[in-house]
Design a protein that fits this description.
single chain, 1421 residues, alpha/beta, eight-stranded parallel β-sheet
Length: 1421
């Protein structure tokens, strides 16, 4: 019996499966969180009810806990573990083959080792560095050992597997104990050798190896004889140049290590001789230094560091050479409180082993600073081991900070994961109130017993507070216990680490899939917000994005800071340095992602954990591929390998498998890269495009994944999943469904492991409706010919469902009609929105006949349509090329109506008894506002201005475009004549910035009241706020920077609308803050004097790397036979799309990937097709032509090193007859690094060398005539297209010509073999900087070039008053050939340099300051 509501009762079988499970868990109390899960489901059901009431789409159903699905198994996954017989071996031949160390260090003559010894000659002369022993000194069988005869690796393995070996105790404690009984003050520390030392040295225990060697030898012997130590550590804990800086003894680092090791060697040999069955060994002690690479010394700046990786490697390498030359057997990196320091030490060890060819066992000992079980830099013991295991240490363990009792849980945890031998040398308890240690030898032995009982150790010793009696007691306690057994060896796994460790093979994501989620949001290309933060230097907020990804389930964080306006090298380093100080971020591993290999290397050097490098591939060629992989291996990182080779991207299954297998064989067999640390990306490509050849891409990837995993044991597979569904962009549910099916099968059926994802957007396959599941399955697996059509139908249904949900209910689906079936008003709107001009005359005529006046057609359907265009553009739903096409339709429609409107005006005048020919052709009363647009004096660039004019015109603004090179007087005169509401100034070259300031000042003097808009490539909001607005800004007439065309309508409408006051007030407040920040920044930023900058210039060794050989042809060459078709392969299309304000988002930035972009891809492809059509027409009819001139001349740097003299011939060089002088500018802004302060003059050799300098000027002629033609046809789209193409042609011509110079005209790279893509990536020797650009920001240097190569006379290329090149599509450049020449930015410069520069150029200072105004670090008078 039950009292129920029978109507609402459900049968158990009627429940959804997930609801049934929730109910059973709750009713039968099956899980602890059953109530929480049911409350979450209840909240969802309520939200669904609310959504239905409001006609909104239902929320996503909470998943609850999903069952973990099994990982696909391959043959190598089922191999049974084998007993470990020795610790993992390094990959060197010496280690692999157990080659004995001959101990003949004098034969180690590698230049890096020899350089250390040569440096040390200042303090130590001809030390004995050979310690070999006669082969027959002792018997051959274990436990005997003879240096040079026996493998120490084999001996240590035998020793550590037969008993618990004994290490020594504290050196510092013993020195303190000695001082209590004997005089050991400042004089004793100094000894005779350092009696006049410049600073106090008491406390520098390491120097006692030099000044009081008997004390150190005595301590060594006590540990060997009384303690019974098998191995003793050298007195070299602080013997690095970094640590010795405290005592001003940096230059003694080698000697300190040599003597510390030599004394230990002598003590060990003396004790061994007494009992050869118990040989003793010297462990070279390498301490952590007194600096930390992972921790900021500044509370205010988390990115600050007092040491970097390379500095640590350098100091450790010197220490290692000294230790080995002193006779060390083993190297011990110890007391690690910052794992990054340890990684640097191990990197230095690796470098030494590579230089020497020796097999030297390495021990590593970490320090967990408190009961948290973490190092000072925050890592757990497991993460610490995962970070250093790539170095293949023979023994790993813990020492210092804690007593044995407090270490117990951490030793246990570490013992469970360490693959090699284990050790502990704890303190004698915790320090007492006076800093001493109270544990007796018996106490310490008893506290260490737990380690022996549990079989956790192979070696034991003591640290702070321990003495020979302590070591003796521990030894005696350990003798009845067996050593730790080496763990069994199973299949290798990818073991990553941040502050915590992560085994990739053990990971399941939030969907229950065996899949590693790599968070995508800390990627400039993938997140606009992250990009803005990085560009603004807001690293703190960027960290919040990283934290959120971890909270949302990212196992790894991808970090990518690639952007043309950002110093990627500096940004990557700063981001990583800050990130590693944020525990919630750095607890997970990092994926360091960059297009430039040097950026990821820089990032690696700041990661204490084991990271993933993304990416390398064979497209760079085998040699460079191996170099990059080797470096990554040395740092211990995992790597993403793209399926690219020298021939391009793998598309088919066979290509994917072939390239990945080839890469695998090279990495594993030649580089010896761990196969488990390789992640292949076989390229996920787009399906459902309508092209038959794309239909099998999903199948190809899944099949290739399985085959690659079969043929390449232990590798991982990753892919860019969003690429798969680009054909269905805009409908999230469809895309997620396709991804769900693909991932489900790729992971579970083929073994895919990794992906860069936004975890919150992923769908479980169980969440797909049956119809959609089948459609996705058919599409992904190419099961039927019409799979794409079916999916398109489902996409349309989903779109309609979205619309119905928005409308709040059902709607009748009616038969689709063609837009041509609509009335003429709707047809015109459709034509305008879609840029279709085919039927416009017919439709406008029909609309005209229905209207009472022609003007009504413009004010009605045409403006209604353009308003829709404007709204869509403003909302980001239309793009610039579409808007321009809409404007073309609008102009054609208006042009059709104009004769009718003029006739109407004439008839009205006749009716009024007036002269019909007397009417105002410029009546503009029907517009929303009037705007004057001009490119300022001296500047011929107008493409951006033209685009803004069209966009404003589309929004019913009357635009008076008065053209280019307009002097201030004309601009003001025309503004008055047209009585405009707003004035817009445009400019591309830097002198235009100064001209805009002039116009602003003159507008203020003349009492103008119109707002002033500033735009163009070189303009910026900061320049407008600092330089322009102070001269012309009130609430009535502000000066405002407009970033691009899409912002122009918003700005103008705000200025002419009711909200002007609030809009201007916000701009005024923002600009005031920017000015304050700018001037504060100038006060904070330090600039070197010009003299100091010159002293720190780049110094090229022209003897070691001589100048390029003499050009084949000295002098001037006219280039007039190159056709546009010749340069098409050299076109860089990326700026073309930027001109049209089309920007793809990660991973589809740049050409041709932009075509796959979800938002702009379709429009970009249409635009590109139009561009190609026009390009082929231009090539066919010859409407544009290319011409240029090249000059190649003998050249030398001037005597003061700041300019370059050009000679007409070698004879003139000999006689000193200068043809012309190119004056250069030098960097002055202080740098955080030791990088030199560059000038282009640095790249040219001084007098006495035969160097040369090239230069060229090139143009594309004919564009102006084509533009006029399209203007006459009211075709703005084609007009702007022609200008954009002309710019691409001339840039391609410059690239083409530079190659011709390198390979033929000059010929210094005659054998260069680069494809066009490599050329665009600047992979060749030499540079071609242009006057007026960052490396030489002074446009006046163009006049020197023009006079030298006669550019106007020979090629028809002119210069305007402001030195803008004419025609506008022109490029000029200097050509430097030296391989060390590089692009750079001069940046701001000081008055002292400007004065020198003006004097060298024979300019008045005020004139020079005007030309250099944008880069002055001071306000000119």
């Amino acid at each position: 019996v039950g009292i129920v509501n029978a109507k609402e009762l459900l049968a158990k079988d009627e429940l959804e499966n997930d609801m049934r499970i929730l109910c059973e868990n709750l009713v039968f109390n099956k899980t602890e969180d059953a109530t929480d899960e049911m409350l979450q489901r209840t909240a969802y059901e309520r939200a669904c009810i609310d959504a239905r009431k409001k006609g909104l789409p239902p929320p996503r159903k909470p998943r609850g806990k999903l069952e973990k699905m099994p990982r696909m198994q391959f043959s190598y996954d089922n191999v049974q573990p084998k007993p470990g017989v020795e610790p993992p071996l390094p990959t060197s031949d010496a280690a692999q083959n157990h080659v004995p160390n001959p101990y003949l260090n004098s034969k180690l003559t590698h230049e890096k080792i020899q350089a250390i010894r040569n440096k040390a000659k200042a303090t130590i002369q001809d030390p004995n560095i050979d310690f070999s022993q006669p082969e027959d000194l002792y018997p051959q069988s274990f436990p005997h050992f003879v240096r040079g005869r026996d493998s120490l690796r084999e001996y240590i393995t035998s020793l550590f597997t037969s008993k618990i070996a004994i290490y020594d105790g504290a050196m510092g404690t013993m020195i303190q104990n000695y001082a209590k009984k004997n005089k050991l003050d400042e004089d004793e520390y100094r000894g005779d050798r350092f009696k006049n030392w410049s600073c106090n040295v008491k406390g520098n225990n390491d120097m006692l190896s030099i000044t009081q060697p008997h004390i150190i030898s005595g301590i060594y012997k006590q540990y060997l004889e009384e303690g019974g130590s098998n191995l003793i550590g050298t007195n070299t804990f602080s013997s690095t140049t970094i640590a010795m800086a405290d005592y001003e003894m940096e230059e003694y680092a080698y000697e300190l290590n040599y003597e510390g090791a030599r004394l230990a060697r002598e003590a060990c040999d003396e004790v061994t001789a007494k009992d050869p069955t118990n040989p003793r060994f010297v462990v070279g002690a390498i301490g952590p230094t007194n600096r930390t690479a992972s921790i900021s010394p500044s509370v205010e700046d988390p990115s600050a560091r007092n040491v970097d990786f390379d500095e640590l490697v350098e100091t450790y390498f010197e220490q290692i050479v000294g230790l080995m030359d002193g006779g060390a057997d083993i190297l011990m990196v110890e007391t690690i409180f910052d794992t990054l320091n340890a990684k640097a030490a191990l990197y230095a060890v690796g470098e030494y082993l590579e230089c020497s060819g020796l097999d030297v066992p390495v021990f590593v000992s970490g320090t967990l600073v408190d009961q948290s079980g973490r190092t000072l830099s925050g890592q757990t013991g497991e993460a610490f081991y995962a970070s250093i295991r790539h170095a293949k240490p023979m023994c790993v363990g813990l020492n210092c900070a804690l007593g044995a009792q407090h270490m117990t849980p951490f030793v246990e945890r570490l013992s469970k994961v360490v693959e090699c031998f284990m050790h502990v040398y704890s303190n004698a308890g915790l320090p007492n109130a006076m800093g001493g240690y109270d544990e007796t030898p018996d106490d310490m032995a008893r506290n260490n017993k737990v380690f022996f009982e549990n079989g956790w150790l192979n070696m034991v010793g003591g640290c702070c507070g321990s003495t020979p009696p302590h070591i003796k007691a521990i030894r005696e306690m350990s003798e009845s216990f067996k050593p730790r057994k080496l763990p069994d060896v199973g299949r290798p796994k990818m073991w990553l680490s941040g502050l915590e460790d992560l085994v990739v093979e053990d990971v399941h994501n939030h969907l229950g899939l065996p899949f590693l989620n790599v968070g995508e949001r800390c990627n400039i290309s993938g997140s606009l917000r992250f990009k803005r933060l990085m560009m603004n230097g807001d690293y703190g907020t960027a960290m919040d994005i990283a934290k959120k990804q971890v909270e949302d389930g990212a196992h790894v964080i991808d970090i990518n800071v690639d952007d043309g306006l950002l110093d990627g090298l500096a940004a990557m380093q700063k981001f990583v340095k800050i990130a590693v100080t944020e525990p919630e971020v750095s607890k997970v591993p990092f994926m360091l992602d960059a297009s430039k290999f040097d950026i990821v290397v820089a990032g690696m050097k700041w990661c204490q954990g084991k990271s993933i490098i993304n990416s390398i591939s064979l497209k760079v060629g085998e040699e460079l591929f191996k170099e990059q992989a080797t470096l990554i291996k040395k740092h211990g990182a995992a790597v993403v390998v793209m399926a690219f080779d020298e021939e391009g991207q793998a598309a088919t299954e066979e290509e994917k498998v072939r390239i990945c297998k080839r890469s695998y064989d090279i990495l594993v067999n030649e580089v010896k890269f761990p196969p488990e640390d390789i992640i292949f990306d076989p390229n996920v490509l787009t399906i459902g495009t309508g092209m038959e050849e794309h239909n099998n891409y999903g199948v190809d990837f899944i099949n290739a994944t399985k085959r690659i995993k079969e043929e390449c044991p232990y590798v991982k597979i990753s892919g860019g999943i969003s690429n798969l569904s680009f054909g269905f962009r805009g409908v999230t549910k469809i895309r997620e469904s396709i991804h769900s099916v693909f991932l489900h099968h790729a992971i579970l059926d083929a073994g895919m492991d990794v992906g860069i994802v936004n975890a919150k957007e992923m769908m479980h396959i169980s969440e797909l409706e049956p119809e959609l599941l089948k459609g996705c399955d058919d599409l992904v697996f190419n099961k039927c010919d019409n799979a794409t059509e079916i999916m398109l139908d489902l996409t349309q249904k989903e779109k309609k469902a979205i619309e119905l949900r928005k409308k709040g209910g059902g709607a009748t689906i009616v038969k689709e009609k063609s837009w041509r079936d609509e009335n003429c008003t709707k047809r015109l709107e459709h034509a305008l929105i879609n840029g279709i001009s085919e039927h416009v005359d017919k439709d406008v005529e029909e609309a005209r006949k229905q209207a009472s006046r022609p003007l009504e057609v413009i004010e009605g359907p045409l403006m209604d349509g353009m308003n829709v265009v404007g709204d869509l553009f403003g909302a980001g739903k239309m793009f610039l090329p579409q808007v321009i096409k809409s404007a073309r339709v609008m102009k054609k429609a208006v042009a059709y109506l104009l004769p009718f409107m003029e006739e109407e005006k004439k008839q009205n005048l006749i009716a009024q008894g007036k002269d019909p020919n007397d009417f105002d052709e410029n009546d503009d009363s029907n517009y929303a506002g009037k705007v004057l647009m001009a490119t300022v004096k001296g500047d011929v660039h107008d493409i951006g201005k033209n685009i803004v004019s069209v966009v404003l015109g589309c929004n019913n603004y009357k635009v008076y475009d008065i053209g280019v090179m307009q002097p201030c007087e004309t601009i003001l005169e025309k503004a008055k004549e047209y009585d405009v509401d707003v004035i817009g100034l445009s400019g591309l070259i830097t002198p235009s910035l100064d001209e805009m300031v002039v116009v602003a000042k003159e507008m203020s003097k003349a009492g103008f009241k119109q707002p002033l808009l500033i735009g163009g490539a070189t303009t910026s909001k900061m320049h407008t706020a600092v330089k322009i607005s102070p001269n012309y800004f009130t609430m009535e007439h502000p000066s405002i920077h407009v970033l691009d065309a899409s912002r122009s309508v918003t700005v103008v409408s705000s200025l002419l609308g009711d909200s002007k006051e609030d809009f201007v007030a916000d701009i005024m407040e923002e600009y005031e803050e920017m000015r304050e920040d700018y001037y504060a920044g100038l006060e904070d930023r330090y600039f070197l004097t010009f003299k100091q900058a010159k002293e720190q210039k780049l110094t090229i060794d022209f003897d070691a790397v001589p100048p390029a050989p003499a050009p084949k042809k000295i002098g001037i060459t006219v280039i007039d036979s190159v056709k546009i078709a010749d340069v098409v392969p050299y076109i860089d299309w990326n700026p073309f799309f930027q001109t049209w304000e089309l920007r793809g988002r990660y991973p589809n930035r740049g050409y041709p990937k932009i075509f796959k972009d979800e938002t702009v891809g379709e429009e970009a492809k249409k635009l590109f097709d139009d561009a190609e059509t026009m390009m082929h027409k231009i090539i066919a009819d010859g409407s544009m032509i290319l011409k240029g001139v090249v000059g190649l001349f003998p050249a030398n740097r001037s005597a003061d090193g700041e300019d370059v003299h050009i000679y007409e011939s070698e004879d003139d060089r000999e006689s000193g007859k200068v043809l012309s002088t190119f004056c250069m500018l030098r960097q002055q802004a202080e740098k955080e690094s030791d990088d030199p302060y560059l000038s282009q003059a640095d790249f040219i050799a001084p007098a006495g060398y035969k160097d040369n300098l090239g230069m060229f000027a090139v143009s594309c002629f004919g564009c102006e005539e084509l533009v006029k033609k399209y203007e006459s046809e009211n075709d703005d789209y084609s007009k702007i297209m022609a200008q954009a193409l002309a710019d691409r042609f001339v840039e391609a011509f410059a690239e083409y010509l530079h190659r011709e110079i390198r390979t033929d005209l000059w010929g210094y790279a005659a054998n260069e073999d680069l494809n066009e893509a490599d050329l665009l990536k600047i992979k060749y020797n030499g540079i071609r900087p242009a006057p007026g650009y960052p490396s030489q920001p002074d446009h006046t240097e163009k006049t020197t070039m023009w006079q030298t190569i006669k550019a106007t006379e020979l090629a028809g290329i002119g210069l305007s008053e402001s030195l803008s090149m004419m025609p506008a599509s022109s490029v000029s450049a200097l050509v430097f050939a030296h391989p060390e020449s590089q692009y750079f930015a001069v940046g701001q410069i000081g008055k002292d340099q400007v004065e020198s520069y003006a004097e060298r150029k024979n300019f008045e200072l005020s004139k020079m300051e005007r030309w250099l105004s944008p880069i002055l670090n001071y306000e000119r008078d």
